[in-house]
Design brief:
By secondary structure, this protein is an all-alpha fold. Helices cover about 70% and strands about 0% of the residues.
Length: about 160
């Protein structure tokens, strides 16, 4: 409310002062509510900024720890594969890939490796001896012999 408006209505100065005082009292509660709401909004914005900052920090930490865990997993798998002694570098690569996939599915790489060693013992070196591994040609004309010894036995 403006004093000019009341003066144009022809009210006396004392009456205008009384109206303005009463109007000020009635709007004071709403003004205080607005100030409190603004303070609360400011506090909430600051809390949101702090939470976002903490979230970013936690996300960075998670990314670093995930990378460390993956590197550790890869070192463990490589160690297991090297200890098992695959028959070739190609077999080593394939075995690392297979154990990594199995580990990502929640399987124990050591268990998977034991199963593979049992199912195909000729794919692994024993006593440091490389064992040759034969497979079919691109046209399928050559018989499939898993090892040299099995190929010699059939001939």
């Amino acid at each position: 409310m403006k004093r000019d408006f009341l003066e144009k209505l022809g009210l006396s100065k004392a009456t205008i002062d009384a109206i303005m005082t009463e109007h000020g009292k009635s709007t004071e509660e709403y003004r205080n509510r607005c100030l409190a709401a603004e303070e609360e909004l400011t506090a909430l914005r600051e809390a949101a900024e702090a939470a976002n900052s903490q979230k970013e920090s936690l996300m960075q930490t998670l990314a670093e720890q995930t990378a460390e865990a993956e590197a550790f997993r890869d070192r463990v798998i490589l160690s297991l594969v090297e200890e098992a002694g695959p028959s070739s570098s190609m077999a080593k690569t394939a075995l690392c890939r297979r154990l990594t996939e199995e580990a990502l599915m929640g399987k124990d790489p050591r268990e998977v490796l034991l199963q593979l060693e049992e199912s195909d013992p000729d794919a692994f070196r024993k006593d440091g001896v490389l064992r040759p591994y034969f497979s079919t040609g691109s046209q399928g004309a050559v018989e499939d012999f898993p090892t040299l010894s099995s190929a010699l036995k059939r001939r």
